[in-house]
Amino acid sequence: MTAPLLVAAQPQASFVPDSAGGDFIQLRDVYKSYGEGLVVMDHLNLDMRADDRLVIIGPSGSGKSSLLRVMMGLESIQGGTISFQGKSYIDGNARNHGKPLDVRLQTQVGMVFQHYTLFPHLSVLSNLILAPMKVHGLSKVQATEKARLFLARLGLESKLNAYPSQLSGGQKQRVAIARALMLEPKLMLFDEVTSALDPEMVTEVQNVMMQLAEEKMAMIIVTHDMHFARNIASRVVFCANGKVVEQGPPAQIFTQPKEPRTREFLEKVLHLD
Amino acid sequence: MNYQFDFHFLTGNFGALWEGLKVTLQLALVSNVVGLILGFGLCLLTLNRWFFIRWPAQLFIEFFRCTPALLQIVWFFYCLPMLFNVFIDPITMGVLALGLNLTAFNAEAYRAGVQAVPREHLDACVALGLRPWQRTLYVILPQALRTALPVLMTNGISILQQSALVAIVAVADLMYVGKSIATEAYRPLETYSLIALIYFALSLPIAQLVQWLERRQDTALAR
Ligand SMILES: Nc1ncnc2c1ncn2[C@@H]1O[C@H](COP(=O)(O)OP(=O)(O)O)[C@@H](O)[C@H]1O
Ligand SMILES: [Mg+2]
After folding, report:
1. Using CB atoms within 10 A as the burial measure, which of A178, B14, B16, B45 is most buried?
2. Which residues are A53's β-sheet partners?
3. CA A209 to CA A203: how far, in whole Å?
4. Measuring CA to CA, how many Å separate A234 from each of A112, A231, A267?
5. Residues on chain B touching A74 (C-beta within 8 angstroms)
6. Is residue B13 part of a domain?
7. Interface contact A103-B124, CB threshold 8 A
8. In angstroms, rounded to a whole number, what is the distance separating the alpha carbons of residues A50 and A217?
């Protein structure tokens, strides 16, 4: 089956299976704290390739959401630098206090949240076309055409004129993904997007993400679903106390973690399943 | 009770009652227009990030919330002309007092509406690349208006009732006309009952509409 593409043309990366490096995204010495005591990124270094699917795992409160929010420009950093597609994206020492330096780069990042964020006063279609029209300057006709395409690919055409309150949780999250894809992002961030869902709806959302993975979308995913993490990740990153403790291909991290802390964490979460 | 009801005397007073009703409606409607528009502006001021803008706006609201409406009206009628040496016609003065009172209460309704917009929606706006003013216009305002609507309407009805207070400063509204008729005809029971019925009939449909809206919003939220 050749499913129609969800992803616009992505930069082609040279594929180096085992390397942890990559110049699509580079976090260097990134420092972030909330107030005085709470350091959530402690001189963090992380690299990503354009076809990487990073799954971030770690104890609750270890700063996974903060990392995604920084990448999205929702939080600022106090030190270090982040580059995106080879360009300087965020600088902790810049005058804008560690927020994205380049709005154009920022709009190439898309994010889906744990909580439902479809705007309840707008229909599915209006939710999808709002930003493309207001931010990318598409005409209503163009944007509507595009929205139809995306919804069709996600099997949601019949919901075009529905309101968010008429959708199931799984459908809401799929529409939220479509809304983010409408802006043709180069990087997608997913922060526990299935955590609020009833179990029977988790798969439909995860399937959309798998479809994106097949189309080589660069993604950073935070999830507690280790089974899904193993399936979708090109690399798993275990974070604790604001640092990357260990990273590697999912097969290695889940079967032969090197660090005792990784092993401890995995034992805990896998036992809960 | 062997009181003999007699409504016949009222037939000769319909004209006067109608004139009074028109004044009451005028007071209520114009006050609502003032309150709906200025209320939103005031709400934005109270949400401003600068303390010196926020603070006077909040003080204005507290002044109207923490003093009796009757006193506000009396103050506007007697003190404002003395302070500023201006004379404004009584109806305009009534609209001013009632309108500003409503402005204060509506500002609070709008503010609750703005603050009820989930934080995550604001994050989503950033993720979608919307500029702050676009976020306010397309996402915050429509949601806030929806939440605030039942309260704004309830405030609207309540200002219709409060408008009866202007009778105390001799504005010839429905209440004032009723009072004159009642004393002239020695028929307070019939007159005041009729007046009450008119206020009631004006307010009830709106009150029902508010209930319907609230029920609809509840079911929408429950889904
Ligand atoms: N805006 C904020 N202000 C203060 N503390 C915060 C804020 N956001 C998150 N935190 C704290 O930072 C820590 C990391 O949070 P978070 O990034 O959400 O972790 P995770 O997603 O891994 O659970 C937590 O202790 C959390 O309470
Ligand atoms: Mg989190």
Report:
1. A178
2. A219
3. 10
4. 20, 9, 21
5. 123, 126-127
6. no
7. no
8. 8
Angle CA(B192)–CA(B197)–CA(B203) in degrees, nearest 5?
A: 130
What DSSP character marks residue B9?
G
How confident is the model over A248-272, as pLDDT tens digits? Answer: 999 999 999 999 999 999 998 887 5
Instruction: Report pLDDT for B157.
Output: 95
For residue B174, the Cα-to-chain-centroid distance in whole angstroms is 17
- CB contact under 8 Å between B223 and A179, yes or no, is no
Number of domains within chain B: 1
Give the pairing of strands A218-222 and A53-57. Answer: parallel
CA distance A163 to A186: 28
For residue B184, being part of any structural domain is answered with yes
CB contact under 8 A, B128 and A72: no
Ligand closest to CA A62: 1
User: Domain for residue B73, yes or no?
Assistant: yes
* Residue B218: inside a domain: yes
Quick: pLDDT tens for A9-53: 554 444 343 445 678 999 999 999 998 889 999 999 999 999 899
The CA distance from A69 to B127, in Å, is: 9
CATH code assigned at B149: 1.10.3720.10
Q: What's the gap between Cα A138 and its chain centre? A: 25
Q: Confirm or reject contact between B222 and chain A (CB < 8 A).
A: no
- Strands lying side by side in the sheet with A25-34: A38-48, A25-34, A79-84, A87-91
Q: Where are the domains of chain A?
A: 25-118+185-272, 120-166
Interface confidence (ipTM) of the complex: 0.88
Q: Closest-CA residue in chain B for A102?
A: B129
